[in-house]
Design a protein that fits this description.
Blueprint: E1 11-16, E2 21-24, H1 27-32, H2 36-39, H3 50-66, E3 76-84, E4 90-102, E5 106-115, H4 116-128, H5 141-158, E6 161-168, H6 172-178, H7 181-197, E7 204-209, E8 212-220, H8 225-238, E9 241-243, E10 246-248, E11 253-259, H9 266-282, E12 288-290, H10 293-312, E13 318-327, E14 333-344, E15 348-351, H11 356-361, H12 365-386, E16 393-396, H13 399-402, H14 405-419, E17 426-431, H15 439-450, E18 454-460, H16 467-472, E19 477-480, H17 484-490, H18 492-507, E20 511-515, H19 520-528, E21 533-535, H20 545-553
Parallel strand pairs: 11-12, 14-16, 16-17, 17-18, 18-19, 19-20, 20-21
Antiparallel strand pairs: 1-2, 1-5, 3-4, 4-5, 6-8, 6-11, 7-8, 9-10, 13-14, 13-21, 14-15
Helix pairs in contact: 6-7, 12-14, 14-15, 17-18, 17-19
């Protein structure tokens, strides 16, 4: 803890249970005149006027006694407390005290000092602007952009650098949702104060939105200093902020853009810094991100996808591909799994997982889900007309579809009525990570089963697999997650777990499909552990509708196999055609 207080934005010292000062940061020197080293030779009462020392000592003893056994207690505030500076002058401070205890320090107090004059001045200003934006003194985006552009013009003639940093603290929404907007304003004021303390007079700060700020550093001779500036902002903003009895720890994400390397005008600098900040948010490590050309390319591609995705449905650019899976013993066709793809006119085939997030953020997820389901049934209708039915078809349902059970079941009834097929040949897959299934979605699955459809758990084993999933949910099929077969080749324990899962599933009348078969070794393991069917690019990749028909059905209508899959609960027969 001692080494961390230097990064705190306030003047702070740590006081032991017997009153000795055991740590202090350099900001204390600005308030009292003592260096941290000089303070370590003193007791806290030495900094108080003589007539206040006995009262303080008694208060300290009562405080430690009252909080005995606690490693952390609420914050106590002492307003207008008199203390002596190094030259003997009395000054008044507002002091926040909090008990802290660790193996390094033992029981101690963390004392945070602020000048009473500064606090009262801020309080007065806040009261005067009660009906106005409490951050009125901070530039808005328009004024900030103008300042950055002026700095850029100066930098062009002087051969210097300008850096724009955008900062998001990540806690503002949580605070206003729990404590209200007044508390949120106090939080923002503290953020502004902290950034101001480590900024020069010529630097400019603006509030962009919420707790998102921008800071400009101009007249820089060395661009390498920008990383140090960003680290300093992150360090100062990461310290806890106390609002009443509540403590909040900001988690700042910072984006950086520098003139002239990243942009040559203010608008582009700010845009690039904001883009970098959002990349910092997405990063697993978070923190600080510097703009790069790759970010701009990804952003442009994303913008193109968003725009094109809105019209893709009306332009009939979505298609369904199918990947077969086969009986492991005979090699005969067991069924197909459908997957939606986007035939982009310029970018070619885009798989669903590459535009799922964009679809969610643009509000296109629902119509795309409905389109995928309609296209799958349209393929079934064509197969039926061609005489290639029955054929097992597996179609994945998204979490968004399951979250709208009434809409989903209504669409399924319509498709079933229109296609006039036996629903037992169609399975709907739910991803294992979407389990356990909430009650409202479980009712939807039960209603789907009542219609005659089947339920498949996809990528079983990738999440927190549980036996209760297979008992509580009306499951007919499980598909092992890709990669499990490969792992089980050299991992006997993994192979034993998979074999036991297959045995358990068969006892429950649940069939098992092995996915991710990419070699003879994978196929051998899948057969050894008793899987009913297998799927993988080694056997057959995902195919367009026409390609599937050509490969599997061309000139040779599959004959029905009297030997059904291991599925005592359902006597439908799979198609037995094989790939030529």
């Amino acid at each position: 803890m001692k080494k961390h207080i230097e990064s705190l934005p306030d003047a702070v010292m740590m006081i032991s249970q017997n009153g000795e000062i055991i740590a202090a940061n350099s900001l204390m020197q600005g308030l009292l005149g003592y260096s941290p080293e000089e303070l370590l030779s003193k007791k806290a009462e030495d900094l108080l006027p003589k007539n206040s020392r006995a009262e303080y000592t008694a208060w300290r003893d009562r405080f430690f006694q009252a909080t005995s056994g606690e490693t952390s207690a609420s914050v106590s505030h002492l307003e207008d407390t008199r203390a002596l500076t190094k030259d003997g002058t009395e000054e008044t401070f507002d002091i926040s005290l909090k008990r802290f205890e660790s193996d390094e320090t033992g029981p101690c107090l963390i004392a945070s000092f602020r000048s009473s004059k500064a606090t009262k001045q801020a309080t007065t200003q806040s009261a005067d602007s009660e009906r106005r934006d409490p951050l009125k003194e901070v530039s808005d985006k328009k004024r900030f952009t103008e300042s950055v552009q002026a700095a850029v013009e100066n930098a062009k003639t002087e051969g210097r650098f300008v850096a724009v940093l955008t900062v998001d603290s990540g806690q503002y929404r949580k605070i206003i949702d729990t404590l209200g907007r007044d508390a949120g304003d106090d939080y923002l004021r503290e953020l502004v104060a902290r950034i101001s303390r480590i900024s020069r007079k010529q630097d400019t700060m603006a509030r962009l939105a919420g707790d998102e700020f921008a800071v400009m550093y101009q007249g820089l001779n060395d661009p390498d200093v920008v990383n140090k500036l960003a680290l300093r902002i992150k360090s100062f903003l990461s310290a806890p902020i106390y609002i009443g009895e509540h403590s909040f720890a900001p988690r700042p994400d910072i984006g950086v853009s520098v003139f002239p390397t990243d942009a040559d005008d203010a608008a582009a600098l700010l845009r690039n810094a904001d883009l970098a900040m959002h990349n910092a948010k997405k990063s697993a490590s978070g923190g600080i991100a510097f703009f790069s050309g790759e970010m701009a390319e990804r952003a442009e591609q994303r913008l193109t996808l968003e725009s094109d995705l809105r019209s893709a449905i009306f332009k009939d650019e979505f298609v369904v591909h199918f990947q077969p899976f086969f009986q492991l013993e005979s090699g005969s066709l067991f069924g197909v799994e459908s997957s939606l793809c986007w035939q982009h006119p310029k970018l070619g085939t885009i798989e669903l997982h590459d535009f799922t997030q964009v679809a969610k953020e643009t509000g296109m997820a629902t119509p795309i889900d409905e389109t995928a389901l309609w296209l799958t049934f349209e393929a079934i209708r064509k197969w039926k007309a061609m005489g290639h039915w029955p054929l097992r078809v597996v179609h994945s349902l998204s979490p968004q579809q399951l979250a709208r059970p009434d809409s989903l079941t209504r669409q399924l009834r319509g498709l079933l009525l229109d296609s006039k097929i036996d629903p037992q040949h169609v399975s709907f897959a739910i991803h294992e990570t979407d389990m356990p299934v909430p009650n409202d979605r479980l009712k939807a699955l039960e209603e789907i089963v009542e219609m005659g459809f089947r339920i498949c758990v996809d990528e079983f084993g990738i999440g927190a697999s549980a036996l209760t999933y297979l008992i509580n949910v009306p499951v007919h099929t499980v598909k092992f997650a890709p990669g499990l077969l490969a792992k089980s080749i050299d991992d006997q324990q993994c192979q034993s777990v998979l074999a036991a899962t297959v045995q358990m599933s068969h006892i429950l009348n649940i069939e098992v499909i092995a996915s991710g078969i990419e070699s003879d070794a994978h196929l051998e393991v899948a057969r050894k552990i008793g899987c009913d069917a297998g799927q993988g690019n080694w056997q057959c990749p995902s195919l367009k509708f026409e390609e599937l028909c050509s490969a599997v059905f061309d000139g040779n209508r599959p004959k029905q196999n009297k030997a059904t899959a291991r599925d005592p609960g359902n006597k439908h027969e799979p198609v037995t055609g094989t790939l030529g």
